[in-house]
Design goal:
Number of helices: 13
Strand content: 15-25%
Distance between the termini: 80 Å
Helix content: 25-40%
Oligomer: single chain
Number of strands: 15
Strand order of the largest sheet: 4-10-11-12
Length: 419
């Protein structure tokens, strides 16, 4: 009887309507929380989600059989661009705004897009003669290879480390979080967050860094898909080479190689050699014109034959940008072979495991914070004068620069930590 009386009073006072409205609001809350959870769980943390994203990608790859030229590669059946860019960021931002104050735990939060200055990138597509470059580093005694360096190119590698004036400083220019360590065969995600937590916006105002980043979106990551390089992209490449050739590491490289008679003493001829070495296309994965040294080493590729795997992808700037987009899931560092060498926030040579677009790279080494000109100079030197294994010291780091040739081209080159 009491319940009946209370119900009649609620109806008379409009309480029933209030309860309906409250339930409706709670339902909206649940839906809002669900959509937020979907955003967060879209970070490749469980096998079901990985499979869903992989299947979605496969459907996208096969959805357009027609052939077209698009952004520097040839779209063909199975070769459509896979692009998680600003549209994904915008969708995540809108979903994130509707989280009603809920905090999601146990999953990696989606990174908000970092502000990257791109205003000048369009200008990089102009002819090299129409662009503005930074001042050239003056030739000094420090850029002349010593007799000891000429006799032992591993000393020249270490000299390049000293000459990397644009190398970033941990804690001041960027911040990393290594997470937990793991063995190569372990599949658990041992990193709760991103590898690169923070990167100063000033980094993207550095001319060589900015020009390097502008090149990263010129490629289709699917190995075996033929690339078509536009005239504007060729000008971007030439302008990048021109910019890095004004820096100390590249000037030293030219002095070193010309002293050995490997390249011309003409700096203009040397620039053309560098452009050809890094950007000329060659065959990989059974398709001619589908790869280049720059794409493989710095951008990365995904092998499509058999089980998918990430190939190349050894650059920290590409890692940061792809991590910021949500395309890379950092899963922890690989335990070093020697005890007492556990990496920390100051470490600039890391061996790591990660997924790129849902595809695992079980082990990969990368130099953190170094400049594009340093990596180009180091890897070029190893290609021309080294072998497959190139043991050297880079500052405090003993390292083996692995270098694989593909005919007279760079097939792959990357650092391997030796401790």
């Amino acid at each position: 009887m009491d319940g009946l009386i209370k119900g009649l009073v609620d109806v008379a006072l409009g309480g029933g309507h209030d309860r309906d409205r409250e339930e409706e609001e709670q339902s909206r809350d649940v839906r809002s929380r669900s959509s937020w959870a979907e955003v967060v769980s879209g970070d490749q943390d469980d096998d079901d989600d990985q499979e869903r994203r992989h299947n979605q990608w496969s459907r996208q790859e096969q959805s357009r059989p027609q052939k077209a030229v698009h952004g520097g590669y040839e779209e063909n059946e199975g070769c459509q661009r896979h692009d998680f860019t600003q549209n994904n960021w915008n969708r995540e931002e809108k979903k994130e705004e509707n989280n009603d104050g809920w905090e999601t735990v146990g999953r990696k939060p989606p990174r908000r897009p970092h502000k990257v200055e791109k205003d000048q990138w369009h200008g990089y597509k102009k002819p090299a003669s129409e662009q503005q470059y930074s001042d050239e580093v003056e030739i000094s005694s420090s850029l002349e290879p010593s007799d000891e360096e000429l006799a032992d190119f591993s000393r020249a590698c270490d000299k390049l480390w000293e000459l990397d004036l644009n190398r970033l400083r941990p804690g001041k220019d960027y911040e990393i979080e290594c997470g937990e360590g793991k063995k190569v065969y372990q599949k658990e995600d041992m990193a709760q967050g991103n590898l690169i937590n923070w990167l100063s916006e000033d980094v993207f105002r550095k001319p060589t860094f900015s020009r390097f980043c502008s090149l990263l979106d010129n490629y289709n990551p699917n190995q075996g898909c033929r690339e078509v390089v536009t005239s504007e992209e060729k000008q971007e490449q030439a302008a990048f080479i021109e910019e890095i050739c004004r820096t100390a590491p590249i000037k030293y490289l030219h002095k070193y190689l010309s002293s050995k008679g490997i390249v011309s003493g003409s700096y203009q001829d040397f620039k053309r050699t560098m452009t050809s070495l890094w950007f000329d296309l060659y065959g990989r994965g059974g398709t001619s014109g589908s790869s280049s040294a720059f794409e493989h080493v710095f951008v990365g590729e995904i092998k499509q034959s058999g089980e998918q795997e990430v190939s190349g992808f050894h650059n920290w700037l590409q890692f940061y940008l792809e991590e910021a987009k949500g395309n890379v899931d950092y899963q922890g560092y690989i335990f070093p072979r020697r005890r007492g060498q556990i990496p920390d926030s100051e470490t600039q040579l890391l061996t790591i495991q990660f997924e790129w677009n849902g595809v695992l790279k079980s082990v990969s080494s990368t130099l953190i914070g170094v400049s594009p000109e340093f990596e180009i100079a180091l890897y070029t030197l190893c290609f021309f004068l080294g072998g497959e294994d190139n043991h050297t010291q880079l500052g405090p780091y003993p390292v083996n620069i692995k270098c694989y040739r593909q005919g007279d081209r760079i097939g792959s080159v990357f650092p391997v930590a030796e401790c």
